[in-house]
Amino acid sequence: MLTVHKMHFSIFLLLWGWVLSTECRAYRQGKEIHEAYKKGSRPQRQRREAHGESHKQGSPILKRSPDITKSPLTKSEQLLRIDDHDFSMRPGFGGPAIPVGVDVQVESLDSISEVDMDFTMTLYLRHYWKDERLSFPSTNNQSMTFDGRLVKKIWVPDMFFVHSKRSFIHDTTTDNVMLRVQPDGKVLYSLRVTVTAMCNMDFSRFPLDTQTCSLEIESYAYTEDDLMLYWKNGNDSLKTDERISLSQFLIQEFHTTTKLAFYSSTGWYNRLYINFTLRRHIFFFLLQTYFPATLMVMLSWVSFWIDRRAVPARVPLGITTVLTMSTIITGVNASMPRVSYIKAVDIYLWISFVFVFLSVLEYAAVNYLTTVQERKERKLRDKLPCACSLPQPRPMMMDGSYNDGDVSDLGHYVSENGDKQDRMMVQLALGTDRGSGKRKNQRYVSMRIDTHAIDKYSRIIFPGAYILFNLIYWSIFS
Question: Hey, what CATH topology would domain 98-280 get?
């Protein structure tokens, strides 16, 4: 019986010890969790749960393929061995010059500016060279194509546009740059660029001129000893879009040339030229400049058929044509650069201006001579001792309001051929009375007044001279 009690007591002690140990272990775990939260670290229990979830995901059924983009080096960089070489130096450094072929496809000629003397062109610029450092093993001999991100990690030719004012690589939606590498290390580097470059224009024959501009490509750092720049396919290396057109010019020709450029401090460089010839359309300037100027000159001739005493008609007509010609000349020069030589359009406009101005001077001369003649006639009439036997002149001869076709009542007004002329014969009788009141002696003095002579000659001389000028002008400049 005692033995049974001892057994029960032992069991009770074991159970009590197990309960105490469990409570102590739970207390310690709670304390650790509390301290872990206070320190900001993950609890041990959560670590075990996360470890259990990762263990479940690692099962063959739920296993994912590895993401190679998260590796330290991408597959392409590993294949091209970019980190194994120093791409800050050109291929074959220390050896012969590396040949770099170039071809260009012109996408558009955006604008030609006469005022700024430049042009804007958008083109695809492609470079070809071989860099054995980029060679890679390939079973199918297929090339690899990359975008602009790899360009920053390898060597590319340092091309620039000589005499360029502005240029940029298109970046919509990403940088328009392409890099293609062959297994043997041959590289194609292409980019889409817009460049505004200077063009030295000669306006001595404007607007009947033909301009030749060029876009020049050159390496900035490498001389001909390090880099040999050449057109890949000769003149066929330059391709143009058939839809290229300009509002004021006709594109006659595109061609390529190659020259050497020398700089005193650095040496000789290979330079490639894209040359294009532009011929200006003349029809716009015929409508806007030449025809209005010609019409103003012809309008100034109308005054030759207006009566010379119609001052309110002839003077405003002459002034209007002069001011209109001045406006045309100002408008043409406003859209042109301020060159120090005479242009072809200046010759035409200024000679037309001279014709208009001379028509105004012609009327001034006619009016002045008419006034002088009338003054002389008035003095001769005042010298007559007796004019009772002579018909009195019409009053309109004195006030300047008569027409040149009026016939006076004086004798001998008929010309030799019997036709009525624009000349008027004034016959004045000058006599001396010797006391008896009879005219013992009479003398007749005749005076001719040419009323239309200058106007009549101007009707022929002005148009004839202007037609002759046009024949000479268009035969020289057309």
Answer: Acetylcholine Binding Protein; Chain: A, (2.70.170)
